[in-house]
Amino acid sequence: MEVKLQPEDIATGDELETGAEEIRATIKILQTSKEVTRWEPYQVNNTLKAQQNIVFFNRVPKVGSQTLMELIRRLSIRNNFGFHQDRVQRVETIRLSPEDQAVLSSLVSSYEPPGVYIKHVCFTNISRFGFPEPIYINLVRDPVERVISWYYYVRAPWYYVERKIAFPDIPLPDPKWLKKDFEHCVLSGDRECKYLTGETREGIGDHRRQSMFFCGHHSECLPFNTPGALERAKRVVEQHYAVVGVLEDLNTTLTVLEKYIPRFFTGAYEIYWNEISRFNPINKNAFKPPVSETVKNIVRQNFTKEIEFYQFCKQRLHKQYSALQLDNKT
């Protein structure tokens, strides 16, 4: 299943300004911390650990990854590197068997460097299968906003038109399911919107959390909103990912990508704002009605570990930005 970014998933100007204020506040806190007063870029740059000049973007759905993918495609022309993405699939499996992980590791490593490979899949430790460590990147988004976006994305009429064209034999879903409102789903206690701690769902049907894309293929990653999955996901980010961007902090994300992975992302900020953003007007998805803060707060109560993971990634991004000391340079 190919997941495409819709216009409401792109950060607005107001969101970016709010993000900038949060960055400045976070940097001030980090710089006055008793534990660490200053970082150097090499201390928070896993790009230096890469053993092959291949970027592996195991993109999370509904976090702005389609926009980043388009940005990378344009950068591949400007910066002269290979651009490779997984084909559209009838059923997309994000958790793989060890055998399939080995096949994927071999595929990623088969491309001529420099290059980028993009696929919806859980973190795969390529070095575990005897191949050189690539440069891992990804994006995250506020987990509650993301799950709402996904809820309406899979119910949008154009989504099923595209699926039907690609795979004519796929049956159409029940119209009652298509018309089901997210707020009513939550307030009525519908199983689809309960988000129970420890509950396990397999495959692409488990759209509830983005942390699974970082936790990996281990069975400990399956139960929803659990400490084990959270800690494993955090550890993977710290040990393997060069950059995990944040949709709500897009300016910071683009800056960190440029500075920490310059071979691939030099010019990212310019291309995004002068080409992608300017010529792709931001419009609200007509199929996504507003959701009240009351309902969002109900959902947040069951997303505690997901929210903690999101905040962890956000703080790490800010730390990487702070290490650049750009605010102290003229």
From TrEMBL:
<dbReference type="InterPro" id="IPR005331">
    <property type="entry name" value="Sulfotransferase"/>
</dbReference>
<keyword id="KW-0808">Transferase</keyword>
<keyword id="KW-1133">Transmembrane helix</keyword>
<dbReference type="InterPro" id="IPR007734">
    <property type="entry name" value="Heparan_SO4_2-O-STrfase"/>
</dbReference>
<dbReference type="GO" id="GO:0008146">
    <property type="term" value="F:sulfotransferase activity"/>
</dbReference>
<keyword id="KW-0472">Membrane</keyword>
<keyword id="KW-0812">Transmembrane</keyword>
<comment type="similarity">
    <text>Belongs to the sulfotransferase 3 family.</text>
</comment>
<keyword id="KW-0333">Golgi apparatus</keyword>
<keyword id="KW-0735">Signal-anchor</keyword>
<dbReference type="Pfam" id="PF03567">
    <property type="entry name" value="Sulfotransfer_2"/>
</dbReference>
<keyword id="KW-0325">Glycoprotein</keyword>
<dbReference type="InterPro" id="IPR027417">
    <property type="entry name" value="P-loop_NTPase"/>
</dbReference>
<protein>
    <submittedName>
        <fullName>Pipe</fullName>
    </submittedName>
</protein>
<dbReference type="GO" id="GO:0000139">
    <property type="term" value="C:Golgi membrane"/>
</dbReference>
